[in-house]
Amino acid sequence: MTKDYYDILGVERDATPEAIKKAYRRRAMRVHPDVAPDDADAAEKFKELSEAYEVLSDSNKRAVFDRGGDPMSGAGSAGFSGFGGGFSGGFDFTNLVDAMFGQAGGRGPRSRVRQGQDALVRVTLQLHEAVFGVTKPVKVATAVVCPKCSGKGGEPGSEPVTCSTCDGAGEVTAIQRSFLGDIRTTQACPTCRGYGTIIPQPCSECSGEGRVRTTRTLQVKIPAGVSTGIRIHLEAQGEVGPGGGPAGDLYVELSVADHETFRRDGDNLEMVVKLPMTAAALGTTVDVTTLEAEWEGSDPADRSVAVDIPAGTQSGTRIALKDRGVPKLRGGGRGELGVTVLVQTPTKLDDHQRDLLRQLAESRREDHPEAETAKHGKGVLGKLSEWFTS
Asked: Using CA atoms, how far apart are residues 42 and 33, in angstroms rounded to an integer?
């Protein structure tokens, strides 16, 4: 036997039936005489390819071939009795075309009702809204069910009628004759666009779409502790589908605006407090306004906090106040409120104040100090610099 059907189809000897079908379909689309009319050998190549597919797609014939026998002998020898005379015997030309182009037909009319798409809106929050949570009105421009036709697409009182072109099948079949036989192709009906029915009186409100665009306002609950980039998923609040189909989902993407006093760092809030040099040297207690002061639902007692400044506090010192930061989005508790001290050196002194400072410097032997160099690195001063430059 000179023919190797596996080689003709370009598959391995252990190829599955599905792999054989795909290989045949792929090669048939290249050598079919109607596709390659300029190839004088196209008909012979297609005949050989079809013979290989007939053998390898039939488990009995394939077994005979694998054992070294002639699968086309006996009852199967009439399978290709003259290519010009058409196919006969054990080979079904309809199955050949189905393998080549995929099974056509049988889909039936498609529904006018389809799933809607998801929608995305972006919302900017103030820092206190993101930290403590808020229920926020959000405007959404989406498609909703047409109020006039309730999604049916026709004027009230009218009903869809069966398409006369396809008799409700939603598809039509065209027959193309060739020397190989009749080739049938099926496509969506051009009259009804595959629906199988026609709406004789489309709704004047939605033009038969079953949905209209509008802007609606949703009350969206924002949980405490959210941050920029987080998306809130609202099921079935997106676009209503054609024909009044089920709505997609709505995603609300959050962005948190910068604050003039507080800076967020993960679950912590950071702020800077300016102190006179004398207060930092002697120590003091200062009242600091917290972020709760901007939240209507907060306890008035939490809207400020007393911060103890130890004597000798240096500029850049951070004092951490526990459970005064951002509520943790997953899990309980809150982060810290970090209060960074910025010691201010006086720039305007009268003669008396200048004499007092001079006396202090002399008593501390600092009237002629030696400069000390500092190593490079961020440290507290570097972080403090970042605060003002970021």
From this structure: 5
Q: Is 189 annotated as a binding residue?
A: yes
For CATH 1.10.287.110, the residue range(s) in the chain are: 5-101
- Does 163 appear as a known binding residue? yes
- The model's pLDDT over 206-244, given as tens digits with 9 standing for 90+, comes to 999 999 999 999 999 999 999 999 999 999 999 999 999
Place of tokens 């911060």: 307
In which residue are the tokens 């488990």 written? 59
Asked whether residue 179 is marked as a ligand-binding residue, the answer is no
Helices H / strands E in the chain, number of each? 9, 15
Task: Name the CATH superfamily, with its identifier, for domain 119-154+205-256.
Answer: Urease metallochaperone UreE, N-terminal domain (2.60.260.20)
- pLDDT tens figures, 124-155: 999 999 999 999 999 999 999 999 999 999 99
149 marked ligand binding residue: yes
Which helix (H) or strand (E) is 8 found in, with range?
helix 5-9
Q: Cite the residue boundaries of each domain of the chain with CATH code 2.60.260.20.
A: 119-154+205-256, 263-389
Burial class (CB within 10 angstroms; exposed 0-12, middle 13-18, buried 19+) of 288: middle
The reply to whether 69 sits in an annotated binding site is no
Q: What percent of the chain has pLDDT over 70?
A: 83
192 labelled binding-site residue: yes
